[in-house]
Amino acid sequence: MKSIGIIGAGNIGTAFARALARHGIPAIIANRRGPSSLAALVEELGPAIRAGTREEAASQELVLVAVNWSKLPAALADLPDWNGRIVIDANNPIEAPLFQPVDLGGRTSSDVVAGMVPGARLVKAFNHLPPGLLSADPQAEGGRHVLFLSGDDAHARADVGALVERLGFFGLDLGALAVGARLVQFPGGPLPVHNLVRFD
């Protein structure tokens, strides 16, 4: 299993950390306020999750980024070379309290995020389910909640897909970002409005 970092301790980053903790999968979680601000969270989550700096989280082999859209540039600025590490883009170009979609000029949000993490292998995933479903038991009505993923690097998609499966979800690979990222982008894509269950 690849080492895991989480940049962002909001709703999605915390839900992802809870899902990892439930399976005893270790990770480092970071936010802009520093490790001490996460003391209560990591105590609650247990020994698998520890707080670290943004640089520590970003240095892991697989890094989930889940930050308010307007704060992404600052969260990803001045980090070491990504050097082929996997970045999971769990971001959507919208944020509270107004929930106004950001004008991306026809680009996908993943295309914008990719420009902020040069040298990374980007995979879009963990962005379309509400945090409550992401952190809850993925078993549902005799099946498993579906998590979509897409990316231009097949090996990176496979690694993220393996993590999705280990967390108990059914990973549905949508292929390259040009197609998959547009399908799952919220708002605009047709898939985020659906909570799908795969029956094995």
Please identify, by name, the CATH architecture: 3-Layer(aba) Sandwich
Low-pLDDT residue spans: none
The shape is globular
Which class do the helix and strand fractions yield?
alpha/beta
* CATH topology grouping: Rossmann fold
- Beta percentage is 15-25%
The percent range for helix content is: 25-40%
C-alpha Rg (nearest Å): 16 Å
> How far do the termini sit from each other?
25 Å
Mean pLDDT: 93
| CATH level 1 class label | Alpha Beta
Oligomer category: single chain
Query: What is the string of SSEs from the N terminus onward?
Result: EHEHEHEHEHEHEEHEHE
Could you explain how this protein is built, in words?
The structure is a single chain. The protein has a single domain (4-198), classed as Rossmann fold, CATH 3.40.50. Helix content is 32%, strand content 20%. The chain has 8 helices and 10 strands. It has helices at 11-22, 39-45, 54-58, 72-76, 109-116, 131-135, 154-166, 177-184; strands spanning 4-7, 27-30, 49-51, 62-65, 86-89, 121-125, 139-140, 143-151, 170-173, 197-198. Helix 1 (11-22) links the parallel strand 1 and strand 2 (27-30).
